[in-house]
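User: I would dearly like some help making sense of a protein record. This is the protein in question:
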Amino acid sequence: MAFSKQNRKGTFSGIIFVAIFAAAATMISNIEVIKAMGISPLVIGIVMGIFYANTLHNQIPSEWGTGITFSGKKILRFAIVFYGFRITFQQIAEVRMSGFMVSLIMLSTTFLLGTYLGIKVFKMDRDTSMLTASGASVCGAAAVLATEPVLKSEEHKTAIAVSMVVLFGTISMFLYPVLYATIIEPSTGFLHMTTQEFGIYVGGTIHEVAQVVAVPASIVGAPVDMANSAVIVKMTRVIMIAPLLIILGIYLSFEAKKSGATADGIKLVIPWFAVYFIGMAGFNSIGIVPQNIVDIINEIDTFLLTMAMTALGMGTIFSKFRGLGLAPVYTALSMFIWLVVGGFIVTKLVVSIF
């Protein structure tokens, strides 16, 4: 047990050690150049954690490991629950049925496509395929973190999925403004979208929340409705992580039962932290908590998520990556193409219907 009498001191030391790394990641993310690129402290945290894991991990007492594991598991689930303070049901209602349907279609198709291609075509293991798919389909690194405890996967697989989010999410930040300026801009583009449509397209297809915010901000003269639509549709995708994880838990239990697993293996996996996440979003929707308090909660939550990501990075040893080759890149690239091309088509069709 992490907080048993013999482990308590090591656990606290490990948690403090992770917190120091997370604080450094937060400071780095606030550097203007880094902030302008939309790189979150979560990404910086896992990079620092991976660097530590492959260079200095033998330099700290082994008993600190319980604190590092606690940060990557328990603190993670606590942070995902309070991620609900970033969303209100009123925001989801603002984008109406068109924004909701784009979010639902792109999330479900991207997750299914990524999982199928990863397992069947590129021959990756189930966990790496699903983690990579969740990162692309929902909300980047935070979705990977939320999916990891449901799958009970290893840290290095989480790191692979996050690295794919970073790679293709960063490409999106530079690609979408160029697409808008050349072929989508309402008055000049031959595949023109209205500014609100483009906002829905951005929110429904780009990986990270920070990257979604960065795209309209980088377009000169972008109207407010573009940015608002993008963020609200993105947050609609974020809240869908909860039903996705519940469905995934039911599916995994069914698969375990079908394969003749033991009683422990067929126990229904309900990710309660995902249920609590929805409850927290509902509580936030009531509006009884002052906005300045909500802002403080979100800042603390981001720090806790950074701690969890850093801890996962600390468990990532490069030697565990052997044998995967370029399969994760091919899988993530396929989803990226679907998000960019398929997302455009889906957005145009859905907006025309609703």
